[in-house]
């Protein structure tokens, strides 16, 4: 129906930061609020999609009509995404930590005379790239986000190629752009066909517009 063009489509959205433990009481995190990802999940649900929102730690309320799975780490996020498959559409908005601390200890690290501990970092799985390279059951449309501070469009195009996703939503997170943690977002949508420059909009409107763009991609 025109009001619910994504009815029956299964969608996975990742959102928020991840927390990577150092020991039982400490972790490494980032400044993602989850706001843009939650708005995307809500906008897709409003268009009738069956949305599973895999969320890192945030303080946000679950949007109407969305099933939510809460996770902390990148590994847990990847496992939750895999469990939510199959899906027609995946939108990876989460700010996944690139690294985690190797061999998280079971005990709190103590301050000792032996000196300051060194943290050894190892690479986290890339959830977006993993989905994009699936040989069987790959979602038909995979959308990644790219936060850049310079050469936004060139870097985003390169990211689309590198990750193997279909679209990249690129935004300028330089201090002048103010997107990170802010209310507005100015984005460029990079597809195989080219790019669209959208006006600066509140994150909710970016999400609505993206959801409608996805619906029109599916021809409805
Ligand atoms: O490489 P970069 O982190 O800038 O790429 C951003 C995009 O990749 C976002 O869509 C993000 O959700 C996704 N990503 C991911 N898993 C990672 C790192 C990034 O899904 N480990």
From TrEMBL:
Alphabetized GO MF terms: FMN binding; metal ion binding; phosphopantothenate--cysteine ligase activity; phosphopantothenoylcysteine decarboxylase activity
Chain positions recorded as CTP binding sites: 98, 108, 125-128, 145, 159, 163
Gene Ontology terms: biological process: coenzyme A biosynthetic process; pantothenate catabolic process
Domain DNA/pantothenate metabolism flavoprotein C-terminal residues, every copy: 6-216
Reaction(s) catalysed by this chain's protein: N-[(R)-4-phosphopantothenoyl]-L-cysteine + H(+) = (R)-4'-phosphopantetheine + CO2; (R)-4'-phosphopantothenate + L-cysteine + CTP = N-[(R)-4-phosphopantothenoyl]-L-cysteine + CMP + diphosphate + H(+)
The protein's annotated pathway: Cofactor biosynthesis; coenzyme A biosynthesis; CoA from (R)-pantothenate: step 3/5; Cofactor biosynthesis; coenzyme A biosynthesis; CoA from (R)-pantothenate: step 2/5
GO CC terms of this entry: phosphopantothenoylcysteine decarboxylase complex
Designated name of the protein: Coenzyme A biosynthesis bifunctional protein CoaBC
Signal peptide segment: none
Coiled coil location: none
Alphabetical UniProt keywords: Decarboxylase, Flavoprotein, FMN, Ligase, Lyase, Magnesium, Metal-binding, Multifunctional enzyme
Function comment: Catalyzes two sequential steps in the biosynthesis of coenzyme A. In the first step cysteine is conjugated to 4'-phosphopantothenate to form 4-phosphopantothenoylcysteine. In the second step the latter compound is decarboxylated to form 4'-phosphopantotheine. Catalyzes two steps in the biosynthesis of coenzyme A. In the first step cysteine is conjugated to 4'-phosphopantothenate to form 4-phosphopantothenoylcysteine, in the latter compound is decarboxylated to form 4'-phosphopantotheine.
Protein family according to the UniProt entry: In the N-terminal section; belongs to the HFCD (homo-oligomeric flavin containing Cys decarboxylase) superfamily. In the C-terminal section; belongs to the PPC synthetase family.
Chain positions covered by the region annotation Phosphopantothenate--cysteine ligase: 11-220
Names of the cofactor(s): FMN; Mg(2+)
Organism: Gimibacter soli
Co-factor binding details: Binds 1 FMN per subunit.
Section of the entire sequence shown: 189 to 408 of 408
